[in-house]
## 1
Amino acid sequence: MKTVKCEICDADIQGEDFEAWFKAAFAHWTVEHADIMKQMSQIMKEMSIPHGEQVQEKHQKELREMESEINPLFNHLVQPG
Ligand SMILES: [Zn+2]
């Protein structure tokens, strides 16, 4: 059983193995932190569309800001246990 606390709200996220845990974590973020997930997917979507330099700079700034929120979550994914 793998248990990791959510960095955003301190909820315990559990799964039998990594795959189960990741699904639980993803479901948790989708439900409890829908605004962050929505922002992420929106930025990802817009990043995949060719833009002028100005727009890309804007999104790079947004992405960096998002990364500071999201990175602690994903850091857990690469840590064993
Ligand atoms: Zn949470």
## 2
Amino acid sequence: MTDDTQASRRRKRRDKRIQNSRRQCHCCFQTFMFCWRCRCGFAICQACMHENAWGMTCNGITWTCPDCGAQNGYGNQ
Ligand SMILES: [Zn+2]
Ligand SMILES: [Zn+2]
């Protein structure tokens, strides 16, 4: 297929842009459209947040950044 190289080249360029708008989870290192983020730059995806909720939050309203220890709101992002 001749379209294949063109498509992959185009996809490569688009990937770069997607990477900019997406967040990389600091836990599983995958990129997501949405991540919980801390002001220090730490980001965690919903799946990892859910998995680590027992260690990240004690009240379900705020979560503690494991990097800098800042409290971040759960609901308003
Ligand atoms: Zn993750
Ligand atoms: Zn932080």
